[in-house]
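Need residues for this backbone.
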């Protein structure tokens, strides 16, 4: 088991990629702290994990500094350490073009997707640095590299995630903290429900892949396990695209 003895905090675990990663991390021997604001979804993930000694579910709003610190304290009380921080949570809501994007839309998207991830890193790093070891992962998107119509704030936030990760890698990889990004393409998760009824949207993004389908969440999770494990001990400051070949076609 590649993550045996490790403790991982995973944000955005109510479903989709976060849930798949939680299950895969536990299968690989990790203890997991589930962070989300969706209590019902997160608790369902905890039930699927089915190992209360290896799992704690904490309602955590990463847009709140105090809430992040409170949840981290609870993780430390239960597990005594944090080895892996997986910044997976995102707002995934303000899918609008520029002229329809309000200041509130913009601020909400960046406050969760980008600044929320930064808050989590700033809270966890002091627990990793004294040990000279740790892994920080981010979920970005292939839309950090290219843009689709009507998704301005989301694309900007995900692009910011790439630079956040690179900056952290430059600062902290020499101190033993590896920092990497997964950039999925279109994934069959509940996020797709917001656009599933938009005529032609799903077919359009699938047509831009080379494999002709949406990704399954567990396909992203297996890449996350690799990056969190010692198999990736020489991998830091980089982005792994898991996009079915979308970027090869788009740019």
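Answer:
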């Amino acid at each position: 088991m590649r993550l045996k003895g490790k403790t991982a905090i995973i944000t955005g675990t109510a479903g989709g990629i976060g849930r798949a990663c939680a299950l895969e991390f536990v299968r690989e021997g990790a203890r997991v702290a589930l962070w989300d604001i969706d209590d019902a979804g997160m608790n369902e993930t905890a039930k699927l994990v089915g190992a209360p000694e290896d799992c704690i579910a904490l309602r955590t709003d990463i847009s709140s500094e105090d809430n992040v610190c409170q949840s981290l304290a609870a993780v430390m009380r239960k597990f005594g350490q944090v080895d892996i921080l997986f910044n997976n949570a995102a707002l995934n809501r303000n899918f609008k073009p520029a002229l329809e994007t309000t200041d509130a839309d913009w601020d909400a998207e960046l406050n969760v997707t980008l600044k929320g991830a930064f808050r989590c890193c700033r809270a966890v790093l002091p627990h990793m640095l004294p040990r000279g070891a740790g892994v920080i992962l981010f979920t970005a998107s292939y839309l950090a590299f290219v843009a689709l119509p009507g998704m301005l704030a989301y694309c900007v936030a995900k692009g910011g995630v790439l630079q956040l990760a690179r900056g952290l890698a430059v600062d902290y990889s020499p101190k033993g903290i590896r920092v990497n990004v997964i950039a999925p393409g279109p994934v069959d998760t509940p996020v797709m429900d917001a656009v599933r009824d938009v005529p032609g949207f799903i077919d359009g993004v699938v047509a831009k892949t080379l494999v002709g389908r949406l990704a399954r969440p567990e396909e992203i999770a297996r890449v996350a396990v690799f990056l969190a494990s010692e198999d990736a001990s020489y991998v830091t400051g980089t982005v792994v695209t898991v996009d079915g070949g979308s970027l090869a076609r788009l740019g």
